[in-house]
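Incident log, support desk, overnight shift.

02:14 A customer reports that sequence design results differ from what the structure should imply. Their input is reproduced verbatim below. On-call engineer (initials T.W.) acknowledged and began investigating.
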């Protein structure tokens, strides 16, 4: 399925993105470590946010199918950049699942990390490590 995102340079190191289906808009900014001011998400921040959002979305679908209460689940992710070439080197963090899950339920939900099409699309050298709390 093809999908369009429109990107327009808005000036002052910012790019305005428009979602093709809904018309929703957001701005990106360069991060301070790359000469920007970090006023909002950078492009690499969006890549990290996409991984977190994708994993939680897949987990929510599995939880709904399995009858697992999933509200309140969360991911805290830290992005580490590398130089030469500049790229995301690592995404590390924690997954907080709702209390009261069995070990089998937790394992089934954590398996969703590997099913995420966003993380599968990233460079194979990128270290992705999510631990469950």
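02:41 Re-run completed on a clean worker. Output:
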């Amino acid at each position: 399925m093809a999908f369009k995102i429109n990107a327009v340079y808005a000036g002052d190191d910012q790019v305005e993105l428009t979602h093709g289906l809904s018309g929703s808009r957001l701005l990106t900014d360069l991060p301070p470590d790359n000469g920007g001011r970090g006023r909002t998400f950078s492009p690499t921040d969006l890549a990290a946010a996409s991984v977190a959002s994708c994993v939680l979305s897949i987990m929510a679908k599995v939880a709904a199918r399995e009858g697992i209460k999933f509200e309140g689940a969360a991911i805290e992710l830290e992005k580490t950049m590398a130089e030469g070439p500049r790229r995301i080197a690592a995404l590390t963090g924690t997954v907080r699942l709702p209390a009261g899950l069995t070990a089998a339920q937790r394992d089934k939900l954590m398996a969703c990390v590997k099913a995420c099409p966003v993380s599968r699309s990233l460079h194979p050298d990128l270290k992705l490590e999510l631990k469950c709390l």
